[in-house]
Amino acid sequence: MRSNNLSRLVKIIALLLCTSGLFWLGFNLVARYFRIQQLQEASQLLAKQEYSAAIAAYNQLLQTGTARPHLLWINRGYAFAGLDRYDEMLQSCSTATEVNPQAAFAWNCRGEAFYHLSQNEAALESFERAIALYPQNATFWLNKSQVLARLQRHEAAIAAIDRAIKLLSRARLRNLFDRRLRAIAFEQQGQSLLETNRKQQALAAFEQSLEYAPSYLAAQQGKGIALYRLNRHDLASAIFQQILQRNDLTPEQQVINLLYQGISLCQIQNTAAAEHALNQVLQLATDDQVRAIAKAGCGIR
């Protein structure tokens, strides 16, 4: 069974997680350039998520005529992103591309701003500019894949994510951050493979993601959905039960996992447990389509 609404909710969760990871990468790479006291102070404010203070610090630094001003505009843009002020992020990142049109990270920053503003074609164009300037950067390919998936261009998304994974595989696995990035890449690959009904390949991708980050929610959930679509309902139910033990789920995440747990239990004829899960969905869900599925119980499965 597949619901357009369920797919939408799954995508939202996955995209939010992936975007968070890629933003972290952009900031850390840019921050390497900052060495003098004032620049370090500004970047530390950003790292501590003191976004308003960071913006003020970057505004002050931009008045000093410091070297590499495009880096200040980029990090200023990410500070605005931390406050969900994406119009201002776009303005700052776009200024970075004007100051230095050859700065690949400026174009990537601009692309992320467009992405958050749901201006998908503009985001894609910006990511492609970043790739043209720095084709060996896996992050840019990850971001390109993400926006292609949103545009429903799934084959192109798979090609982009495959390129990112190849680039990552050539680099040494040095630290937790590298593991996180690989986890994001394989999870994203799994989502696109699910969209093209390559269920077994998607399952393998999610499992690979979980090898790098065992507690990665989007990969756990993707694995459960892939198992469900492969008719391995007992294993799918166990995955969703495991996810529901987490204490960091948003209400929307709780609903989608309860729903999948319920319909998985229906398939293995554990009706009592299924109805219990689906009744919890009815208590929590506000979406009419989700509520309709839960209300039907095991009768339509």
Q: Care to describe what's here?
A:
The chain has 2 domains: 4-232, Serine Threonine Protein Phosphatase 5, Tetratricopeptide repeat, CATH 1.25.40.10; 233-301. Helix 4 (69-82) packs antiparallel against helix 5 and helix 14 runs antiparallel to helix 15. With 301 residues, the protein is mainly alpha-helical. It has 16 helices and no strands. Residues 1-35 have low confidence and may be disordered. The longest helix is centred in the N-terminal third of the chain and has 28 residues, at 4-31. The radius of gyration is 21 Å and the shape is elongated.
Kindly summarize this structure in a few lines:
This protein is mainly alpha-helical and 301 residues long. It has two domains: 229 residues, Tetratricopeptide repeat domain (Serine Threonine Protein Phosphatase 5, Tetratricopeptide repeat), CATH 1.25.40; 69 residues.
Going by CATH, what is the homologous superfamily of the largest domain? Answer: Tetratricopeptide repeat domain
How much helix is in the residues?
over 70%
How widely separated are the two ends?
Answer: 8 Å
What structural class do helix, strand and pairing data support?
Answer: mainly alpha
Q: How much beta, percentage-wise?
A: under 5%
How many domain regions?
2
Write down the CATH class of the largest domain: Mainly Alpha
CATH architecture annotation name of the largest domain: Alpha Horseshoe
Query: Helix tally?
Result: 16
CATH fold field value of the largest domain: Serine Threonine Protein Phosphatase 5, Tetratricopeptide repeat
Biggest beta sheet summary: none
Q: Can you count the beta strands?
A: 0
* Rg, Cα atoms, Å: 21 Å
Q: Secondary-structure element sequence?
A: HHHHHHHHHHHHHHHH
| Gross morphology | elongated
Low-confidence stretches: 1-35
Report the mean per-residue pLDDT as an integer: 88
